[in-house]
């Protein structure tokens, strides 16, 4: 029992500076201790010790820790089979409970107990990020499934909180908005101010109560008169805000996931839905909800087809000059090739090749328009030869679009976009 | 696809008064729809519909719904066995993922998706309360295990928030404190005020962020000079608050669980631990942390032994008069029998028979003193012939006590309490 | 300098329990010390000492303190005259400054400095309440003008904060709503809940930031379908809330000033105005804003005219039975006499005799209807033989009504109310 | 009455975008209207109109507006004299009230009524700033006294709120901290972060509830081990925070007034006092409270004496090189001359010539040490040849120091500082 006495240390201590020295027992013993701890009192202390130890580990030690989770704290297939057989025979609560216990690896309970430590949730998200960044192995991939399962339950939509982000938001949150913006980089605090402060700009983020200073995902919105076709004009320095009375359109021009450690836990369509709700309430004059979205896979696609399609090769060459002017002769081709890419290029499973398209079409949006010279930044030229597109959230059609997309893999697109297609291109629609 | 189109209704609607009429599809179909919904958009609407439908069900219909969960959405033992065999052979992530999926019944995912509806968490807790109040059956007991598993993960200590409860707390919360007090009933708002407002009283509660207006558990604390031996004196109307300078003891005189639907999810020892932390920070002069606790199983125990123990029979007879004065000649016997009960009466597993004793001893507290005439209310006379006890949270000994209790089932008790035992009574200690 | 050293005590001390013992210097010396204190450091300590001393004074000592303010800290007329003459001659800033200083009695600066103590504002309001409750004298009446002047500046409309009061409001605020309700007494917490919790009820209060736990004035609002004519029906136990879709009228049925110590500082019409703004924003379907108001001066008026007006005598006799049924034969007379009272009974200055009428007509409202059997409580029968009236806030006419009332003393009234007048009664309107 | 009808416009309108068009009546007529408005309803609308009009005025028009206040809304000396004579004779409340009314110019009431408009307080502070920036005249100086009087009452210490400023503070507040820092300029958000985020830094500000987004004054604090002698080392990029356990000293290294429009309303010593209170509570290990203060008048003083004092001339020449190294041979002279300046250079009224010295000595601090090369920034070299000093807030002596300073104009200084004086320099102390 010396081990137990050791690791419990001075109970009831938590304030900084006063905490008992953490245990020096081996990590595996600490984990066993935490799993067998009866009282939450000792559990919380052990959880903190383990997380503290983890933080100071080398990459190799962390890998060792993960492998320990994967092997020593795995399910025992033989016991699962025995329990499943008993349950099949008896169908009572006791045998069902036994099956549930046997089929869940002890590492899941370990992770739940680690979460009891102050700040535990954030540390577990960081722990998974470490895991994702390691060279994959079957063992590591298996425990990643446990992280994903647990996070999916904990970061359930019902537990998330939507918050306005504006120039009154605490600086430590805003700092993270700068850091996490993944679509159109925010250069500095002045740039951030241009996106948050004008009367025609909005920003919304989801937070989890256990990580109140860490946004999970955020979307930036521009209120416009009409649907815009250039992100540079949208974000121009020195532009005048659109007067309230002229606003009729809300443009989602950037949506960024913040927590790489929550990969696979999807927040995006909940966020867009709830933001549409908020905007409709506050700004009844807004009738159109639309994105201004990148086409990140376009240039890659064009390269793949360039040898058969001289207009794609010419376009890529023009974009490679880095000079938007050079694109002048290729604008019609650019719009046509973009429409073709989004309407016809597919993954093996029949879904669109472009991830942004999959996201918005999967939400029930419709491909509304295609713009050349819409993102003339270096990145825009490189990834999509300056093309951007609008996905339209038409509330009356969102449900039908979603159904058609999920069941028939049909890409909803405006007639004008379909008309951009070269003669004979197949949209995947049945005749 | 008509079903899908039907149940999705008007998307993006959520405000009261504007919501689309809920679907009239059968409940089982709604559940299948929710489990197969791809987008969170349609999922949230289905979740709301199902919860709304559930609320209006009769008891029989609810039982039918639970049985549907238990049978139609159960694990398939054969598939579990097959998956476990594959995993035993391959040990890769794909087979592990398959085993995890097969071993978790679809109803757990259904409950997680129901939680996405606004207010879903609270409704699920209520749903389990309905379940617990039904005549048990193996089917119902099985799904109760799923609720318990899910709630254990969601109401993880790391997600709970401690809040001071005082006379500045919103009335809708205070109303629930009145309603949920389970140990010493709060008569009305004046009585509540006497427990919250004086400078020598404190109250703390745990909340979950998804149920911000529902306390989960709360503890009432009296700050005292010395350790009290009567709850009536502690709560007397018109008493004077103890001056700050004289306070040296914090007495936990009532701890109440609020959510019957969270039965089995334990918050108590976390709460006591964190409250001790808070009090030590704010009131460094407090050196003693002690309870004034009921002995709910005492009278029942005395009845069981009365035929062999005339002093127990006499005591019960005196208490049955309802007149505390009648207990006068029996006070020594009462204290002795109480000590004997707490130190020697055991459940079959060797743990103390009294549930309050199990709770505090399991937290590492020590049985410090036994008081006669400590609760002279009708309830106090009935359940324990007026006896109450103090459990002491001695921070230097809590860890050793906890270890001894868990491993050796030893009841930690002050020498003075042990001395109350009749000669020859066995405390379960080894000689 | 010993005095100064004494009264400054241990500087920088403020926490409870650690404060230096307050000075035992005479109150007049403390006041002189505070007025001559250079630093705010010593000033704040002196202010606290004076307020603490004041609290423990007997009524006679308080009167002595007020007389000291009135005489020793008065303006010096001779100096004012001299300064005014110099200013008339020189018209420069120095002479203007001197005149300002001489014309303001030092007690005003003393009150401002007392306000620096923690909680000072609330204590000064209480101090004036003490003053108002004393037997008046010219000295006391003079300093009351100083309190009124200062409070008028401090409790400026621009510094007040409007807050919703509902069942989520902290209990210590709600307790004061119960206590301060002056029109229709709130019996207990259950009664309060009936006024705050239903979906068709609202309550709003003004607060001052320096007294955040003390409402200054509040108004209770019932949302109705149509204009009600009975306060008992409005407040009936067990009534069903009006469904949102049927609401078209907001009824201000009670408005209560809370701080007697702020007598003469008017908040009422600001409050009504801002509440109308709030309600129009949140409930656009509400088109009618109306009061259900008492007629507190009616019975007194009827007694005065009873010997010449047999119908008034009969009405009073019926009301005196305390049985609303007894009023049956007198309802027409009651409505007619109420209209007559409100339209024709005047103060010497030509304003309506009834204070509630002066308040609402002065805000630009119109006397819209007269109801018999509208308040059948004991108080209602006593003060107005059960009559109540509606004042209508018709936004399109409020400005003209206000102007006519202020300049021509004209009582705006609906035609139907005018028609209630006996033939030949003069409404004060020009022919 | 057409004027009145016109200016009242559509009552009850306040929301942006819906407000009635503001009145086009002349400003003087608007002011008369506001002063004669009976109801607050019309008053608030008029107040808003006047402020709106004011904002769009040219500088000349603003001057005209101020002159209107100064002349047309001035006190009438003859009436003051008559009222004062009546009051001297009658000593009753009526005559006292009349005197009070006559002696206060109507413009003060006008300013109070302007304050009722939303945002009025902030606009009035801005209005006074305009006034202070104009070419002075007796008329303008007179009304500045009215502003100062009113602001002194409104910004009473008892109405101010202390707030921690840190990296969690809203960005719109932090932006103002950058803008208002007057002592050691904050370069950008990174620099700000270095002052707010480390564990050994604190910042506190006073706010007024009617201007919640405008700090009034703020102080920056460095927690140190020992008393520092160089602001560059204190603020160095890349420095390590002092560990909690080593902290024993709190250094107020910058205190900045934010609102030029509140000139003459002093918040500084209240702020320091309250911050000392806060720090003592949170960090009991801090025993020393000290400033690191500039000596802004030093170089000017040295220039004045340079022709008689060759060491001053040499020092100035070295500082003028802009190279701190050049000061090497002059460090002893610099310390000696700084001590001499602070201890012996006086204003005509006998108070120290240096404003920072007056501030801290007036608060009861003691001149504790003098440092050369303490501020080697361009500004530091220019204004004080790099010298800075520590003023010590020794709680046991603050009261005596304050008394001696106020009454005897004695500069409290450590022996070691006095020893820096050249032989024969007079400190103003009596022998």
UniProtKB/TrEMBL annotation, chains A, B, C, D:
Organism: Frigidibacter albus
Residue intervals of the Malonyl-CoA decarboxylase N-terminal domain: 75-155
First and last residue of the signal peptide: none
Highest taxon, organism lineage: Bacteria
Protein name: Decarboxylase
Pfam families: MCD, MCD_N
One Gene Ontology term of the molecular function aspect: malonyl-CoA decarboxylase activity
InterPro entries, sorted: Malonyl_CoA_deC (IPR038917), Malonyl_CoA_deC_C (IPR007956), Malonyl_CoA_deC_C_sf (IPR042303), MCD_N (IPR035372), MCD_N_sf (IPR038351)
GO annotation (BP), single: fatty acid biosynthetic process
Residues of the Malonyl-CoA decarboxylase C-terminal domain: 158-394
């Amino acid at each position: 029992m010396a081990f137990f006495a050791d690791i419990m240390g001075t109970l009831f201590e938590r304030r900084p500076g006063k905490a008992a020295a953490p245990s020096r027992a081996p990590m595996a013993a600490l984990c066993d201790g935490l799993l067998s701890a009866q009282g939450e009192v000792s559990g919380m202390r052990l959880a903190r010790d383990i997380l503290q130890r983890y933080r100071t580990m080398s990459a190799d030690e962390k890998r060792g820790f993960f492998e320990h989770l994967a092997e020593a704290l795995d399910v025992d297939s033989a016991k699962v089979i025995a329990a499943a057989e008993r349950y099949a025979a008896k169908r009572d609560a006791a045998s069902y409970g036994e099956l549930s216990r046997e089929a869940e690896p002890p590492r899941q309970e370990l992770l739940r107990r680690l979460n009891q430590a102050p700040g535990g949730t954030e540390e577990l998200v960081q722990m998974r990020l470490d895991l994702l960044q390691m060279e994959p192995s079957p063992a590591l991939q298996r425990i990643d499934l446990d992280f994903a399962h647990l996070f999916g339950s904990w970061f359930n939509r019902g537990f998330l909180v939507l918050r306005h982000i504006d120039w009154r938001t605490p600086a430590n949150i805003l700092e993270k908005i700068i850091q996490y913006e993944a679509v159109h980089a925010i250069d500095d605090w002045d740039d951030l101010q241009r996106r948050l402060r004008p009367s025609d700009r909005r920003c919304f983020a989801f937070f989890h109560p256990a990580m109140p200073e860490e946004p999970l995902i955020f979307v930036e919105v521009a209120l416009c008169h009409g649907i815009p076709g250039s992100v540079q004009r949208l974000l121009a320095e020195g532009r005048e805000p659109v007067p309230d009375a002229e606003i009729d359109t809300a443009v989602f021009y950037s949506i960024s996931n913040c927590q790489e450690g929550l990969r696979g836990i999807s927040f995006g369509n909940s966020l867009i839905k709830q933001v549409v709700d908020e905007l409709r309430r506050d700004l009844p004059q807004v009738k159109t909800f639309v994105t201004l979205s990148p086409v990140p896979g376009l240039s890659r696609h064009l390269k793949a087809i360039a040898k058969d399609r001289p207009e794609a090769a010419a376009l890529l060459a023009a974009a490679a000059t880095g000079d938007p002017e050079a694109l002048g002769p290729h604008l019609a081709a650019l719009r046509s090739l973009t429409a073709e890419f989004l309407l016809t290029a597919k993954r093996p499973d029949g879904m669109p090749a472009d991830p942004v398209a999959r996201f918005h079409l999967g939400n029930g949006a419709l491909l509304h328009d295609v713009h050349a010279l819409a993102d003339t930044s270096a990145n825009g030229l490189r990834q999509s030869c300056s093309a951007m597109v609008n996905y339209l959230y038409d509330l009356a059609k969102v449900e039908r679009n979603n159904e058609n997309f999920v069941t028939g893999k049909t890409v909803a697109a405006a007639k004008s976009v379909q008309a951009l297609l070269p003669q004979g291109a197949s949209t995947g629609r049945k005749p």
